[in-house]
Design brief:
Elements lengths: L11 E6 L2 E11 L3 E3 L2 E3 L7 E6 L5 E5 L4 E2 L1
Antiparallel strand pairs: 1-2, 1-7, 2-5, 3-4, 5-6
Length: 71
């Protein structure tokens, strides 16, 4: 089993998307289930989801720590 990555607000991270490599800054950390664009996103204090604002487009995405790399 791999260790979970922990990030904090303000960290600069990157991830792969359909459009290629994207980078941005973490703006919020969700530790409890929440609604996002009509869907329930599941998370917990042990497995949070991170809200990230893209550097290039200002688009906001949500990802689990396993999809992110510190950049």
């Amino acid at each position: 089993m791999t260790a979970k990555r922990a990030f904090k607000v303000g960290d600069h991270v990157g991830w792969n998307s359909e459009a290629g490599r994207v980078s941005g800054t973490i703006t919020r950390i969700h530790r409890h289930d929440f609604e996002w664009h009509g869907y329930t996103r599941h998370c917990s204090p042990e497995d949070p989801q991170y809200e990230i604002r893209s550097d290039r487009t200002d688009h906001v995405a949500v990802h689990k720590g396993g999809a992110l790399q510190k950049s």
